[in-house]
Amino acid sequence: MSSFEPINLGNPADFHVHLRDGPMMDLVTPTVYEGGVSIAYVMPNLVPPITTIDRVVEYKANLQKLAPKTTFMMTFYLSKDLTPELIHQAAQQKAISGVKCYPAGVTTNSSAGVDPNDFSDFYPIFKAMEEENLILNLHGEKPSSDKDGEEIHVLNAEESFLPALKKLHADFPNLKIVLEHCTTKAAIDTINEINSGITNAEDIKVAASITAHHLSLTIDSWAGAPINFCKPVAKLPSDKKALVSAAVSGKPWFFFGSDSAPHPLHAKAKHVGVCAGVFTQSLAISYVAEVFESQGKLEHLKGFVTEFGRDFYAVNSKLDLVDSSENAWLVKKVSKVPETIGEGDLVVAPFKAGDELQFDVEWRAAA
Amino acid sequence: MSSFEPINLGNPADFHVHLRDGPMMDLVTPTVYEGGVSIAYVMPNLVPPITTIDRVVEYKANLQKLAPKTTFMMTFYLSKDLTPELIHQAAQQKAISGVKCYPAGVTTNSSAGVDPNDFSDFYPIFKAMEEENLILNLHGEKPSSDKDGEEIHVLNAEESFLPALKKLHADFPNLKIVLEHCTTKAAIDTINEINSGITNAEDIKVAASITAHHLSLTIDSWAGAPINFCKPVAKLPSDKKALVSAAVSGKPWFFFGSDSAPHPLHAKAKHVGVCAGVFTQSLAISYVAEVFESQGKLEHLKGFVTEFGRDFYAVNSKLDLVDSSENAWLVKKVSKVPETIGEGDLVVAPFKAGDELQFDVEWRAAA
User: Does B222 touch chain A (CB under 8 A)?
Assistant: First the structure.
């Protein structure tokens, strides 16, 4: 253990974070940096969803006050409130970096989302995004359905979405798309297939983000343990193995997006209506490092958490950061995940609460 | 609605009930009759498990006091505490009707169970049971495992068990076996295959019980709703359809066993360690009737809840009942499932709490 050489991860990025608003925002926003992450790509699924420049600018300012060293990249929520004009304007003001698409009803605060069986209403939006080089972030699940001829459930919801992803890519070959928090071997195979033959990072148009928790969880982990219930649900052991292989592969179209999604503990400890989401922000890099070490692939960790995503999003320069004075160093340090963070009514249980972790992140002055 | 003719179901039987002990036993035991059931086949997974004649006799007496009109059929818990001599003795004293086999660790109070990869230690027990015409009740799941070459999880745990069922039947062709609470198309297909060609009910050696809740639930029903979490877990829509088809088919090797499994509400509303089980006892026949009506098969309901199981267990005479003065009549009567039963610390949420049901059971003097 004593022989472990700390690893300079530079300025890691988490390309899928939920920071909420109100007291929950106050609680979790500082944990981005504490968890070893410099750049947070912020989801827009507040209530109501973020669909205006004013709100996204105000939200970013609020976040920045809470975490002065963290670079926040902002998004709009894809809905009928958006127009191509608004997309152009928001891009030119650098108010947003992308647009998040939620199929209606599949996860927390997604009721204003779209019908993934027919994206055509949004093609003018996608065209504007393609022109502005904005990213399209897809929650890639079809809503559950038990109609004859179409049997969609939480287990095949992602795989059933993949044809829609391929069609979008075919219709907008220059639109940069991320399949968010992918959870299945089928998704990994599709992303690899789309990128086969690509040797230059600039040519990647369709990437996938992978969370920390999906590298550890399977269906058995959330059966009877709502704290591990999230959407998309963690799937079979064979899927988890495919995700781990993809994450540690060093392939630049797979990068980190935690989908850290805090809920008050009382919203997880329910007999019905459990909120979907796993909170990993406060120890994000530590969770991921543990998986990479188990695969003997710590040398690929920096690619996954820092380089590949930042290349894809074109935020790979120090100039893209609000603060580049410190670097995140991975160090070997055993610690116990706290049972909860927060206090009073606002208590959140982190992923793997009570377990021991082997790694920690130290921020050190950049060379 | 007014044209519905009440149906005389005779004296229905539930061939898989959990009545617990202590205050929970006091609360749920009377609900067997209230739910429209005359005969309850009682599971032995108390703490510690029931493995002696003294305890099974005492337990039955306690239950009988709580529900004088209910006929209780008792079971032993398969474990190394049992001997062939004990099996012979218990059978000859009519203390038990069968023996329940739990694979270790798969569900509530199963830690004393057996290794389903190797039943051979119990072959002397099975031989004694075969000689005494006792029933072997199998919880048919392999324990989850993520070892290389064997990937068992809650979704394929039952299907993975089926070869062990077939081997047991081959090794003990005259032992009567029930695959309890089956949940998959694979299990239904296997039971049909084993019984293919059988035309006399007396020739059935391997049957399957089907619960009320598995006729309604799928994986989506318990994802985020621990009240619907049970073992085996409810599976895919295609599995549910196979269960419904089997239940309403009129095939005598499929019969009712509710696996009604009460837990205090606080044991279901947890963020980790949710207890597995759905409580259906208090409205057992009403839940099932609703499914049969939706399939236009109410004429097969009596076979499923009364005749087939009682034929298999050879308790098809009035003389087998402690009370045969009343019959259960299915009537059309809309009612709302209560949010909970019980009071204080001992509160149980019934299946479909708050929903409307279309049918009720009335006990009427037998003709």
Answer: yes
